[in-house]
Amino acid sequence: MIGNLSSDEIEDLLQSNILGRLACSNGNRNYIVPISYVYDGKFIIAHSMEGLKIDMMRSNPDVCFEVDEISNFRSWKSVIVRGQFQELKDERERLYAMKLFLDKMIQLKISQTAHPNEQHSLKPVVFRIIPSEKTGRFENE
Question: Which of 30, 35, 63, 113 could pair with 124 as two cysteines, CB 3.0-4.6 Å apart?
């Protein structure tokens, strides 16, 4: 059976995962990349070093984010979030976002962008996705 996820099921899937795919476009080129994230019930929060996806999102803040849970080809859940990229520049907002992120990731190996060292002396770009639409589908045997 294939169907739509309820609002609660969409929220649960976003809350329970830490890896999703971020899609962005600059008008000439589309780009999709896996990212680690945390969902606080309102925003999808992530970070990255400067690069292609940050440049693209700064030029066009319309983004799409996708999260899956796949047991097999006949048993899966998927959520798509459409929204707006917002870079967090206020230091208090950045610290709050990174604290949420690190609290969720504490049991996992943290990427170098979460803890810049001598090789990465630049601050990561901390951002959130402000959802405008959330949809979800599932299939189960």
Answer: 113
pLDDT in tens, 70-118: 999 899 999 999 999 999 999 999 999 988 888 887 756 555 554 444 4
Q: Which two tokens stand for residue 57?
A: 């999102």
Terminal CA-to-CA distance of the chain, rounded, Å? 6
Cβ-contact 98, 41 below 8 angstroms: no
Q: How far is CA 23 from the centre of its chain?
A: 10
Q: pTM to 2 decimals?
A: 0.86
Beta-carbon contacts of residue 110 (< 8 Å; ≥ 6 apart): 102
Q: Where are the alpha helices (DSSP H) in the chain?
A: 7-16, 52-59, 91-105
